[in-house]
Amino acid sequence: MAKDKIDTIENKIEAKVRDVQGHVKDAAGGLTGDIGLQLDGKFDQFAGHAQEDFADLYEEGESAVEKAVTFVRDKPLLSLGIVSVVGVLLGWLFFPRRSRS
Q1: CB 8 within 8 A of CB 24
Q2: Residues 44-59 pLDDT 10s
Q3: Is residue 73 part of a domain?
Q4: What phi and psi values does residue 49 have, to the nearest 5 degrees?
Q5: How far apart are CA 38 and CA 24, in angstroms?
Q6: What distances in angstroms separate CA 22 from CA 18, 47, 48, 77, 78, one per listed residue?
Q7: Is 32 in a helix, a strand, or coil?
Q8: Average pLDDT of the segment spanning 26-46
Q9: pTM of this prediction?
Q10: Mean local confidence (pLDDT), 28-41
């Protein structure tokens, strides 16, 4: 899991760099009147924000998985019971009994 943390931090750094590059391109395009450069800068800003948001979501998901794994390790019988009940409920929902007429 340590490698995942490092990858997430690297993604956040890349996202910030891309965002800063986008601001620089946008400003340079505004000064020179180059609409294409401004558009490229706006795109880089958007991509940087999206990449950073994705890294945050990945971290949150990873945390939820770690909590679930800890719960299953600490309470295996309760976990088995919960999964069994959910399985039965899903079975009743998706495969209802057919009446014999």
Answers
A1: no
A2: 999 999 999 998 888 8
A3: yes
A4: -65, -45
A5: 9
A6: 6, 9, 8, 53, 51
A7: helix
A8: 92
A9: 0.60
A10: 92
Query: In terms of residue numbers, what domain contains 56?
Result: 2-94
For tokens 């679930």, what's the residue? Answer: 68
Q: What is the pLDDT at residue 63? A: 83
The count of structural domains within the chain is: 1
- Provide the token pair at 101: 């007429």
- Kindly state whether residue 101 falls inside one of the protein's structural domains: no
User: What is the C-alpha separation between 52 and 58, in angstroms, rounded?
Assistant: 10
pLDDT of residue 10: 87
- CA angle in degrees (0–180, nearest 5) for 74-57-21: 145
- Computed on alpha carbons and rounded to an integer, the radius of gyration of the chain in Å comes to 24
Q: Is residue 100 part of a domain?
A: no
CA 27 to CA 93: how far, in whole Å? 57
79 found inside a domain = yes
Rounded Cα distance, 22 and 51, in Å: 13
